[in-house]
Amino acid sequence: MPNKMKNIPVIVEEKLFLYPFMITPLFLSDEKNLATLKNAVENDSMIMVVSTKDSSDSQESIYKAGVVGNIMRKVPLPDGRVKILFQGAYKASITKINSHTPFLADLEILETIDSDKNAPLLKVLKQKVKTLSSMTHFFPPDLLTSIEDTEDADRVADLVLSSLKLSKNKAFEFFIETDLEKKFFSLIDYINKEIEAYKLESEIKSKVSSKIDKNNKEYFLKEQLKQIQKELGTDNDKEEEIAEYRKKLNNKKPFIEADAYKEIDKQIKRFARLHPDSADSAMVQSYLDWVLEIPFEKVSKKKSSMSEVEKQLNSDHYALEKPKQRIVEYFGLRELLELRGLLGKVNSGVILCFAGPPGVGKTSLANSIATALKRELVRIALGGLEDVNELRGHRRTYVGAMPGRIVQGLIDAKEMNPVMVLDEIDKVSRNFRGDPTAVLLEILDPEQNSNFRDYYLNFNIDLSKVIFVATANDVGNIPAPLRDRMEFIYLSSYTPQEKFHIAKKYLIPQELKKHGLKASDVSINDAALRLIISDYTRESGVRNLRRKIADIFRKVAVRILKESYKINITTKNLDEFLEKKVYEIEKADKKDSIGLVNGLAWTAVGGDVLKIETIKIKGKGNLLVTGQLGDVMKESSSIAFSVVKVLIDSGFIKTDEEQIYNKFDLHIHVPEGATPKDGPSAGITMATAIASIFSEKKVRADVAMTGELTLSGKVLPIGGLKEKLIAAHKAGIKEALIPRKNYDRDLDEIPDEVKDSLKITPVDKIEDVLKIALI
C-alpha cells in the first residue's frame, strides 16, 4: 500500500460519512461530482469520498480527510442521476487539491499507531458497547456479532463509530485520530456519557410512570419535563410567580376596596393549590395577569383647568364656537368644584356627547381635551356592538373569558382617570345577547359608576374619575333613557370658507409633516384649494379634504425625487394630481320649470338639495310616490295633495277646469332613487310641486324650501337648518323659504357667509310659499 497518492478524483457527499470497511451505494446528481466520476472512469482511477461541513460543496467547506476506494459498479438512472457502488479501502488526508472541476487531490494514507494497551482497551470497549446496546437501538444484532468476533482494534473502533449518532465534527475528530490508544480512551469516555444519559432518562421515566396513566401521552411528556426541571433545579418558577403576584397585590392594597383585595387574594391562594397543568390553573393565572394590570394606584394628578382646555381647543380647531364654549363651561364647573373640594361629592354634570356628521371633529375635540388635561385618551368603538358582555366582561366560567372593554381601556391607559371616548354610541344594537345600552346607562350615570361591576373581575371598580365623552352621527338612534344621561353638543357641517381656513391652518401643515415635505417644496394656491373643496370632496367635515391633500402630496414627493424643484399647485395643473371631480351638490337650474322644486334635506353626512319632480297623467286622481321614501315622507305627500286640492277648490290656485285633480293621476319622484329618505320636512316642497303641475305655473329655479305641512296649511319647524342652508348656499340658491319658528329661533347659528349670500325668507302657511315660488 503506497503512503502517498496523486491526482485522485474527489467525490463530495453532503450527508454521508464513510468508513473504510463500508460498501455503499452513492447517488450522484451534482455536475461537479459527475465530472469527477467521469474522470475516474476514464483513467481507471480510485476515488476519494469526503463529507461537507455545511450545505456548500466548495473546497473550504469539505473535510480534509475521507475514504479512498474503488468503484465496483456504475449505473445511469432515468432521472439523470448516476448510481455507483463504492467500496472503501483506506483512510486518507488531503495534502493538496486543485481549484477547478473535477476536484483532483494529492493524498496521504492515514496509518494507525498500535499500542500494547489496545487489547485490554478493546475488551473494555466491547463491554461498553454491549451495555449501551441494551439501552438503545444503535447496534443491530449482526453488527454486535461482528464487533464481538473481530480482533482488529482499528476496524472495531470504526464499526462502533459508524453506528453511534455523532455530529459530523465529532465523527471527523475520531476519523482522523491515528493513535489507537487515544482513540479508544475518547470513544470509551463518549460511550460512558451516553450510558449515563440513558440511565438518567430511564430513572426519570420510572419516577413519572408511578404518577400517571400510561395511556395519557401528553401528561406523560409534561411530567417528564417536570422531572427534568427538578433534576436541573429549575422547578421553582411557580413559587416565583406566586411571590410576584403577592408583591403586586400588596403594592395596590392601599388603593383598592376591601372586596377587591379579598377576591384577588383568594385567587392567588387558589392558584398556589392548583396543579400547574390543570385547566383551572391556566384560567386563574390569566385572571391574575389581567386584574393585577389594572392601575388602581395610578391617577393623573393634573387638575382640571378651564383656561388650558380653552387654549387647546382654540389651538386645534377652527370655528366650532358654540361646541368649544360648552366644553369650556363643562370644565369650568369641574375646576370650581375641585377648588371647593366638592368634586365627586355633588353631581358634576352630565356626560357630553358630540353629535354631527362624519369628519367634523368629534373625536379630535376629545383628543384636545385629553391633551389639555395631560391625560391618556382611550377610544372605545361601539359601532355594531351587540354583546353586553363586551362592555361588562365575560364570567370566568366561559372559555376565553376576559374583562370588558371599559376595564381593558383603563389597563391600556395605565391610569384610573383617562378621557374615555365612547365612539358611535348611536350604532349600539340589542339582540339575544342582551342590551348593551343598559350597561352604558350604568357607566354614564354619575350616581352609579363609582361601583361599576365587571363580571370577569367579580368586584366593583370606580369609574367616577374617568371623563366620559360620547360621539354620535344621528342622535335619533340613541335610546331615550341613554339620551337622558347625556348633553348633546351639535357639530354642524363646515361652510366652504371654514373648510378653506381649516385646510390652510391645520390640514396642509399636518400633511406636509406626515409626507416629509417642507413649505418650500410645494404650495397650493387659494384658487386651487377652493376648487378641491368645491369639486373634489363630498362631505360635511374635512376628512376627505385631508385625503385629497394627502393624494397631492404623495405625487409631489415622487416628482421631487425625480426632478428636484418646487411644485406649485394651481387650478390649471390640479388635474395632474387628483383623478376626478366629485360634485358635492348639483348647482341650481337656471331655467324655471313646471313641477320641479328644490327641496332642502338633512342627511347623516350633511345637507343636500333634492329636486322633487312631479308629472300628471290622465287618470282618476291617484297619487304615486317613488324614490325609496319612508312612511312619514309618504304621509307628507298625501297631506300635500289634500292641501293643494283645498286650495284649488277655494280658488287660491287657478286651474283650467274644476276639480282637475280628479282627472289626472300624479307621480311624484324624489331622486336619487337608490337612497332611502324619510321625514316630514319635504311637505311644503311637495305641495309646491303639485300646485305647479295643476296650475301650469313654473317654479322659480333659484328658490329652495323646507318645512313640514299640516292639513290646515300651516308650516311647522324642522331640524338640521344649518346643514340645509349651507347646502343651498353651495348649490347657488338665491332664496330659501324656511318655517317662521326656525327663522326666529335658529338664525343666529347660521354662518355669516351663508346669510350674506342667501335671502332667507320665513313662511307661516302654504299660501306664503306659493306666492314666492310660483311665477
UniProtKB/TrEMBL annotation:
Domain (Lon N-terminal) spans: 8-195
Organism superkingdom = Bacteria
**Active-site annotation:** 681, 724
Do you know which Pfam families this protein is assigned to?
AAA, Lon_C, Lon_lid, LON_substr_bdg
Listed InterPro entries: AAA+_ATPase, ATPase_AAA_core, Lon_bac, Lon_bac/euk-typ, Lon_lid, Lon_proteolytic, Lon_Prtase, Lon_prtase_N
Subunit structure, interactors included: Homohexamer. Organized in a ring with a central cavity.
| Family affiliation | Belongs to the peptidase S16 family.
**Protein name from the UniProt record:** Lon protease
Q: Which gene encodes it?
A: lon
